[in-house]
Amino acid sequence: MKQTILTLLITSIFYYCSAQDYNVKKYGAVGDGVHLDNIAINKAIDDCAAHGGGSVSIPAGKYLCGSIRLKSNIELHLDAGSTIIAAPEDMKVYDEPEEFVGKQYQDGGHTFFHNSLIWGENLSNVSITGRGTIYGKGLTKKDTEHAGNVQGGSIGTGDKAIALKLCRNVLIRDITIFHGGHFGIIVTGCDLVTIDNVLVDTNRDGIDIDACKHVTVSNCKVNTPNDDAIVLKSSYALNKPVPCENVLITNCTVTGFAEGTLIDGTYKPQPVNWVCGRIKLGTESNGGYRNITISNCTCIYSNGIALEEVDQGKMENIVINNISMSHTHYYPIYITTGKRNRGPETITDTSSGGNIQISNITVDDADSYSGIQISGLPEKPLSNIRLSNIQINYRGGGTEEEGKKTYKELGKGYPEPMLIGRCPAYGLYVSHVDGLDLSQVTFKTMQEDRRPVIIMQDAKNISFDHLNAPQVKNIAPYRFTEVNNVSVNNSPVVKDYQE
Fold first, then answer.
1. Are strands 382-394 and 428-445 parallel, antiparallel or unpaired?
2. Of 394 and 269, more confident
């Protein structure tokens, strides 16, 4: 019996001692912020992968790096106090952008992945974890890659902090990303993805989920004063239309403070950008979106929620619930389909959207530029949209002249209200919709707004139930054109409507 216990003990000690300690400093990393450390980090990853996988640890220190190449069954763990710093472009230490086969319909940031600070392709069981920081100091936020260039792009330039393509079972947890370049995180064509408790404070997009399925983004704080915070896309980067589906975004905060002030805790507002800090579906939307849930999120100094399908895909089964917005730029809710059609000419589908439910939304200090916009296409209206339990406090101040103008159709344009112009309705603008239920919706204004509360055109099967808004003397509260089959219940704004 004693011999058996001794044998087991010796075996356990031998196993423990023979297991590799994949600490990057044992592979030559210095961690002083001066010496280049990605070569040592890649050696540790290669060795760990060769032994079947495990955790590669980056202890406290500053690690100047070019491209770090992830592998399957690897956890890249950033200890508290560690910082990976993206090297400057002139060091030429980023991998070349890979060759892209086929026509490039999306920008280079969505097309090429290898020229990133941390990247992986065709991997399984890959993780980036820990309380450390990724500082994209030397990354560019510009789209420097275009079809036709050598290997698809600009040699030596890194433009993304983390880029993963065609990976399965991905975990990104607890890390901080500062100044992440074109994308702080982009995952494309990935399955079974969890992004949890990540802090991103960056100069362009925060977290992009493109043509992925079975994704959870939870408990994240994303500050993007110059672009989108959390965005779902379905581009043509995989040389075919692939839907973004079965996605949950929950318990997240998105903001548009000045860059770096979320991390340092000063939370400084900055001049309003045309896009900042929002949660969005689009604009790349070849494959469409389905089975998307966004819940329990807070948006501060941010654009509102945007659902945009403009590249011939289908947007369906979208549920948005329990959202708090404050200091909202341009619009609180924007739902649109269009005909940009950024894809092969052989695809003849028309963008479409339906089965969308948005509920329990509270918005304070909403921009007077536009109210809620819901706009489909004349040949394929949006269908089955429900808005319920929504309260919006607009800044107001719109003029009677603004309320009389004709609003431009989106058509082939980029889907953004700022590019279309100030909306003639301050509360709700609807066009080309079949099936819209509005229940328990309240609009307020901080100062008088002399535009109509609601403008609708080419809409049918509309239900108003407890819709309330201020009435302005000598201003018609609504303007309807070709609107049919309307039900009104306890809604003073439209109580006298007769078809």
1. parallel
2. 394
